[in-house]
Amino acid sequence: MPKVILVALLVAAGLAAGCGSGGSGNSVTLRLGYFPNITHSQAIVGLAQGKFAEALGPNVKLRTKTFNAGPSAIEALFAGEIDATYIGPNPAINGYVKSEGEALRIVAGATSGGALFVVRADSGIEKPADLAKKKLATPQLGNTQDVALRAFLLANGLAAKENGGNVSVIPTANPDILTLFRKGDIDGAWVPEPWATRLVQEAGGRVFLDERSLWPEGEFVTTHLIVRTKFLEQHPDVVEALLRAHVEVTDWINQNPDEAKRMVNEGIRDVTGAALPTAVLDGAWKNLRTTCDPIASSLRKSAADAFELGFLGDDEPDLSNIYDLTILNRILNEEGRPTVGD
To answer: CA–CA separation, 263 vs 268, rounded Å?
Structure first.
């Protein structure tokens, strides 16, 4: 074979190989995380309907990984094991701060609401002052609900014992909270859905406070979508496709709540082995709202509360770059819809 032809063939082979391993239009793997929870409904519905795979196209391989808690999802993102994940605000804040603002960006909202403070019917808790000397539970030290409870105590002249007060705040896994509540070993708990509804329906609890009452227009972020910063920089087209599917699925859920609830419950069952009882699902669903708006003001307030409580180090964190809503707002603008702020 003549040398010129051989060189030409080698160059062509190299170009062909390059077309399968890089940026726009090339083969990419997107590793997406989510929790088997109703607050992560876009992930569950989008996967069940095939909307993510459809939007990403044939050149993007979609892999998914489920988590039970935010810190484990952040650890996976730090380790490069996932590229994007649905997650709560405080784990995202912690991950951003711990990485000195380098590891992640919030690219869209997902869920608003769905956190309640439930007390035992015989707890004697009727007003904030009654929380003195009580035993209260939250899902995890420093998590979103834990910070919310501790901030609420401070706002009402009280504090957890470790913050110089007389209220026992006991970080406990959600299933164990239900057990302790039933046994009367705790007086109340600040928990996300569906656990708040389960405390009411299965353990005779009473809603002392719906967290929506503490926020302007009842809106606060419960779940949003974050992306690994390097992945966003290297594959903005893939992130755009993901966000287009996210927006479409969010709209579909809001327009088809009954069908969406069924699909979410089936998705929860497929991962955990057990679906939610219909009454629990219905009760919890009405306390949530699916949305693409990340409700940035509520995240910044949560971050300020977490800092005041000593969870974010000695220096108040600079969250100025935690959001990158450029792609989301371009999609919303194309559809003639209001954009969202950071």
So the answer is: 9
